[in-house]
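call fold target=WD repeat-containing protein 75 isoform X1
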Amino acid sequence: MVAHAEIRVVHRGGSKINFREPVITNDSRFLLCASGESVKVYSSSSEECVHDLQGHTDLVSGIVRNPSNHLQVYSCSADGTVRLWDFTDGILIKTFIIGYPIYSIYVSENHGGVVFVVVPMANDKSSELFQLVAVHLPRSEDQEVEARELSAVLCDVRPSGAASFGREGEYIAAAKGLQLEVFFFKKQKSYRFFLKPGNKKWAKNAFTCVSCHPKEDCIATGHEDGKIRLWRNFNQKKEYTYSTLHWHHGAVNTLQFTPEGTNLLSGGIESVLVQWRYTQETQMDFLPRLGGAITHIAVSPDGSLFCTSHSDNKITIIQSCVKVSAVIQGLVKGEGVRTNLMIDPRSKALVLNGKPGHLQFYSLHRDKLLYNLDIVQQEYIHEEGLDQFEVVRAAFDTRGDWLATVEERTQKGSELEINLKMWAYDEKTQSFVLNTTVTAPHDDQITAMCFSPSPETTMLVTISFDGHFKAWLLADNSDTTAEGASWSCDFVGGYHLLKPGCCCFSADGSLLAVGFQEVVTVWSPSWELLTTLSQPPGAIRDLCFGRLSCSKYLLGTSTKNQLCCWNLLTCSLEWSTPVDVSLLQADPLSENMAAFCSQSGCSDLFVFKPSEPLPLYSQRALCTGKVQHAVFAPRDQMLESCEEHAQWLNRSQLYFLTQHMDLMTFSTKSEEDRLLASSKRLMVDDSVAVTPFYLLLGKHRQQQEALTNPMAERIQLPQGSIAIKELLYTPAHVLPSASFLCSMFVRSLLISSSPAREEKEPVEEEMESEEEDSEGEAELRDARQDLGGSAAWGPGEELGAPALTKAQERELRRVKHFDHSWLSSLLEC
């Protein structure tokens, strides 16, 4: 339970892994990259995430290796801190508080105890002017240390990717716009070099990136026109020279020298890694078709491994510019998401547009792409102005057995091409297989579609600007796993030639609500129009039924900034409020609803129940711009929160996309503490990736050890045993030899397992000891007859003692058959 549940908006799952240049460790076994508010540690061979270094409270903006310890890295963040990590164990070693938002970090082996960071010239995140400063890290045993000793090095620099240390750390070069600035530390002097904007056609001389040669005085710069310039003699302002290399037809996004300086690597929009020979500039090697545009290049310290970051949120690991050895794929974020955000009922994965013509299935729990589903099934041609099919709509049924997609293409001078596809889930391949394709299902663009949650039938409803909504029904005798499954159009409906804009099923599938401009129509499963609901002026933009105890309510938003709630039992307006709701989302596991409202260029969030007048939670200025896509994802483990304003996060987690395509969610302090504790508790070997199979195998091994280890549940021996005391305290010269007493002593330590066997297998015990019981009873009868008693008398009647149980009788017989000859030999001695 949490006393104070503070809710924060955080990056968690699906963050950009191409935001900054990745880092390869000295042994080339691990790759580290910034991912939202954490640092991901990936295995370079298995592609699995080994550690998730969490601790920053804002976006991580840079990672560098610690020059004095190859097992440590520095990370910086917009939260104003620099943190030192042991990435092999996933442990935070120290936190240096700078006090300014940090956008990049650089280190040099020749500048011990100093890191160079890029901070705004004004202490404000909205500042557009940045400076490079040196931060002296104080030595202290405390885990949190204030590092306020800053010294300016360069002014007016780019926030990222435009600074590099030269040979032996003697100078640092930075590029911005048309200016290249080189600062010499010994001279404490900087030289600036300028390029002309370029009067020729297609000449764009602006700097895009910079990299310094590790062994010689040479600076390589990339430019918008695709050229690479190699600068020399720059220690004198008037005698500098440069040579030009040109292969890229677009801007050079990144440059990187190899550790020995023999090769120069470059990348750009062509998605080709180019390797230039430093001494033979006309010789080049190419590694093409790497995916999206290359944004960053990193090289391992030994030069055996390269990695490239790409615009499609991917990192490619390359072995010495020869072949691709591994690919780490993040959540693909294109220019826009047209399918909305969905949750796969089977895998609980986030589903949305991915690569062109594909749907991506992304695990939010593992923060990993599961697979891409090719919807269009046509080769995508990367050419501007070419009209190609795009996936614009998608929907799952409640069980995850069926997936419906809509793809469309608009060509100049021709009609709109639309395909409706039905995909059946295949248990063998664990993926969706195309079942039915409907060409031109509507005469105009499809604006929305949804499956009926009713378990009795499998039905899909689509609505279009052609003025109709259609119900597509799976045949009753069709098996989803059979090849004969067929879909057909069951009903076509409309309302006074109005164009429908949205639709929604009730939780039990008994009602269908379709919004026709300013009128809401409610239909029964037999396609009878039950009622119509009117509202204040404005077209209906979104409809949503209440859940559970609020199932009698229907909510809708309009283009005239109104949020309305109707009572379906009375068919009347329950309440309405003037608010510009850009998105209305219902939690499928509770009565809660989330309304994203747009106001003054920002988005506000209100979480409420339709039956209550006051919201459960509200947050102003959630993000800039409008929120157009959001989804409630069910939790694997339910949270426990006693704060009323945080209870709406107990069952589900709300994810939303900002206008900058950042996937955000909400986190409570209790959840962050639990994640931090679990990350500290999970200590695995460096080379072992934390996969679900590994976790399952580790749990199985623990269970096996608990069963096979006799010490785990061993019964404690009596500490005051008389026999043991006599054996330990009796003088050695009066005791028999140790070999003689060994077997007797060990036997005394053994614990009889007969009680346990009696509890677990009483039937077998009775069957095995049946003969012994008969023999024992005969012996007891003989003993009674010798004593002159009657055989019919029981032992309790003879001796006046309680009757013995069967277990006690078996123990008595065992003692009787025991060999006591060793005792007589002792007495004879």
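return ok
The two ends are 71 Å apart (CA to CA). The first strand starts at residue 7 and ends at 10.
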